[in-house]
Amino acid sequence: MAREPIIQVKNLVATYGSRTVLKGVDLEVYPGESLAILGRSGCGKSTLLRHMIGLSRPAEGEVLIKGQDINRISEDARVAIFRKIGMLFQSAALFNSMTVGDNVAFPLREHTGLEESTIQIMMKMKLDLVGLSGFDRFKPAQLSGGMKKRAGLARAIAMDPEILFCDEPSAGLDPVVAAGLDNLILRLKSAFKMTIVIVTHEMESVFTIADRIAMMHEGVIRAIGTRDELKQSEDPVIRQFFNREADDEEIDRDQYLNTITGAGG
Amino acid sequence: MSKTATKIFGQVGRRGLELAGQSREVGRLARETFYWMLIAPFRGKGFKWKYVVEQMVKIGYESLPIVSLIAFFVGLIIAMQSAYQLKAFGATIYTANLTAVSIIRELGPLLTAIIITGRNGSAITAEIGTMRVSEEIDALATMGLNPVKFLVVPRVLAMMIMLPCLTVIADLVGIFGGYLISMLTLDLTSVRYVDQTISALTFKDLFSGLTKSGFFALIIAGIGCHQGLIVRGGAEGVGKATTRSVVVSIFLIIAADVLFTTLFYASF
Ligand SMILES: Nc1ncnc2c1ncn2[C@@H]1O[C@H](COP(=O)(O)OP(=O)(O)OP(=O)(O)O)[C@@H](O)[C@H]1O
Ligand SMILES: [Mg+2]
Q1: pLDDT per residue over A124-181, tens digit each?
Q2: Are residues B169 and B67 in contact, defined by beta-carbon separation less than 8 angstroms?
Q3: A89 touches chain B (CB under 8 A)
Q4: A-to-B residue pairs, Cβ atoms closer than 8 angstroms
Q5: β-strand partners of B131
């Protein structure tokens, strides 16, 4: 992989108020690869994605997509870049006032000059890909959580993006559908040469779909590499994650009492 | 200095900074709105007529019954109050003047704006706020679509078209209410009342009323959208923003009215 990275994150620092969530993240994503981002809940994975797609401005550092700093370029250049990017939000973020079909058709209607009949066909194809054919007239409120996720994915790939970001695509899905989704992502990668950045907790899907794995811990990328490289790691944080071990619960009785009574601290 | 005094100064300072920050934000939003409304369409960046029409229906057509009804009642009230007062001088014919002038200059624009704030300003904040909380606005932005163009411009434009229209209707219905009650209770002929009404009004009255209503529209839609866009913190945040949107809008509407009345009618 000696090619130029398509996404470069350089020393990214992100804060919410006075809390620093990302403390200098460095990350490179290469064209055509799939990168999985792992990490404990609340460690800042969604925050990292928000910065990578330019929804939040970094406190420090920069994000480059195709060599361009997305926080410095003109509005027009940004629009040109983002037309080629799809994002599946953790909450799916479907437009609740539109039907599922209109949600998927929306980017096509806004960005392409295609005929309505063509758009309808493309919309139905994308819904079929995620296993939601026949649901195009439903409102998002009438879908289950997992179905919303899949509809969100259909919308994210509506424009056949070059880069696809997925925030926990398979959370809340049954194993059959989750496996189907993994297959879909693999197909997108091989057929459309999409670059895929995916946040997930499902180790199964990480092993199936990810070329490389980035492990986040306490606001930085603790380790990055292929599955085998990470499996051989001696780092306790990584080993704990891969072996599905719970935190060591050596409860100090006095401290526990203090915590629950709010005394001392 | 005592502790309480420090506290009060601190509070005032914080509020002041907060207010200054918000005004800057509103200014930025206004600039962006005007860009997407007046400049971008001529640079081939498109314009969302579909959404403007959608909003016009919500704001104009669907508000028509309640605005008319309230204007009618207010017409009745003003005419009755005026007639009661004027009877003492045997000058009940001037009921026509008082009703027409007060409705066209003040009550028509003001009442319509306040009804529409409650009915549509709050709805704008709630809608946009909910979209903010459910990340729909972020989704729009990641598609390379500008939220101001898609959400704010249609609402501001629809409001600026429909509020003056509603105001004209409220004026007419209100005057009709006054006419009706006068015919029923006063010893006047229909022709005299109508003549008197027409002679009482000047073009300036209508012009000042409609100018005001255009600015009120800007306040209602602008504050409504801004409060919606800055929502933080879930459903509770949306509720708070909606309340704030209505309160701030009504305050600004009345303050603007004071300013306009001074400009148009102050005799100093
Ligand atoms: N809007 C916000 N305001 C303040 N703090 C926030 C906000 N969003 C996230 N945080 C904080 O930032 C940290 C990282 O959040 P983030 O959503 O990025 O975590 P995550 O890694 O995606 O977790 P999960 O796997 O549970 O989705 C959390 O500790 C959270 O409390
Ligand atoms: Mg997350």
Answers
A1: 999 998 888 889 999 999 998 888 988 999 999 999 999 999 998 887 778 888 888 8
A2: yes
A3: yes
A4: 48
A5: none
Contact A140, A128 (CB under 8 A): no
Token reading at B91: 């000058």
Helix axis angle for A145-156 and A175-192, nearest 10°, is 0
Q: Are B218 and B120 in contact (CB under 8 A)?
A: no
Q: Which residue has the tokens 């709805």?
A: B123
Collapsed DSSP state (helix, strand, coil) of residue A3 = coil
* Residue among B129, B164, B133 at smallest CA distance from B241: B129
CA A147, A148, A149, A153 dihedral sign is positive
* Nearest by Cα to B99 from B88, B107, B91, B110: B107
Indicate yes or no: CB of A93 within 8 angstroms of CB of B130.
no
C-alpha to C-alpha distances, B70 to A61, A210, B74, B149, B172, nearest whole angstrom: 57, 64, 6, 34, 12
DSSP state of A262: T
Is the beta carbon of A219 within 6 A of some atom in ligand 1?
Answer: no
* Residue recorded with tokens 């209109």: A102
Amino acid A232: pLDDT:
84
Predicted confidence band of residue A249 (pLDDT cuts 50, 70, 90): low
Chain B residues touching residue A93 (CB < 8 angstroms): 134-136, 138-139
Contact predicate A12/A48, CB 8 Å = yes
Angle between helices B234-265 and B122-133 (to 10 degrees): 150
Q: Report the pLDDT averaged over residues A45-50.
A: 92
